[in-house]
Structure formats: C-alpha cells, structure tokens
Design brief:
Elements: H1 8-16, H2 29-33, H3 42-54, H4 60-66, H5 71-84, H6 104-116, H7 123-134, H8 140-153
C-alpha cells in the first residue's frame, strides 16, 4: 500500500469527491514548503489558486499553471466561488441526478398498467411497454429501483 492510501485525510477527501488526483502537478511554493497546504485537497488548491490571482496579483496563466489547472478551470472555479461561495468549489458528482427517463408521465403509465393487471407486471415487460408507448428505452433494473423507491415512500 502506498503512503497516500493510508492517510486518513486523503481517504476522507476521496470519499467526499474532493481528492486532487493530480496533486503532483501543483508546483506552488506554499504547497511545496508548508505542511498546512495539502496538494491533495482539491478545494484548498482551487481556493489558493483563486486567492493567488485576486489577492497577490498573479496572472491567471501563471496561477493556473502553478496549481495544475487550465485557464478554463480557473475561470470556472472563479465563477462557482462567486455564485456559491466556498461550497461551490466542492466537486459535484458527474452524471444524471435522478431518474431522468422515468419522469412523472412514465411512472403514471406504469401505475396504470399495474392497476389494469391482477398481478404485478415484471420490469422486463414494463420496459417493453414503455418502449412501445414512449419510444423510450429503459433498463428493467431502473424500473425495479423506481418501483422499490415508490413502495418505500408509500401512497
């Protein structure tokens, strides 16, 4: 096991999605000479990059290079900090944030189909019905998860 994988702070950063995997690209003097500055802490690295430009007057190009980011990443971080404050620098998980295919109309269709039959339809059969009705390909497992979630919520 590497030294890095045994560090509890780094493990915590990984779990929070704030571990800076490109820490080796950080060449700013503070991060190289002071223990307080952790190049693996993505939020701290972004914040210090922004501070370096805003407070110390460094150029955007130089600061981005010293902190291992592109100029585009600098401006994105600047906008997020301005809009959301420090929490804006915490990375968001990529991908859809919810069941984007199983919208209210599709879920209502599933309910109608299940009420029409005496027994619960299998997710595979429901997926085929959804494809015919909505021209929407939904994996049966997604239907299972949506139905389980609705059962837990209750009527």
């Amino acid at each position: 096991m590497s030294k890095d994988s045994q560090n509890p702070k780094h493990e915590s950063l990984r779990q929070a999605g704030a571990f800076h995997a490109a820490a080796d690209a950080v060449s700013d003097e503070q991060f190289l000479s002071h223990e307080f500055f952790d190049p693996h802490d993505l939020v701290q690295v972004k914040y210090e990059m922004l501070r370096k430009v805003q407070v110390d007057g460094a150029s955007v190009s130089q600061a981005a290079r010293d902190f291992g980011f592109s100029r585009t990443a600098f401006y994105q971080a600047l906008a997020l900090l301005g809009q959301q404050g420090l929490p804006g620098l915490i990375p968001k998980r990529p991908g859809p944030k919810g069941a984007h295919k199983l919208n209210d109309a599709v879920l209502e269709f599933i309910d109608t189909q299940q009420q029409a039959g005496e027994e619960l339809l299998r997710p595979k059969a429901l997926a085929e019905m959804i494809l015919r009705q909505f021209q929407l390909s939904v994996h049966p497992r997604s239907i299972e998860r949506a139905l389980t979630k609705r059962r837990k919520k209750g009527p």
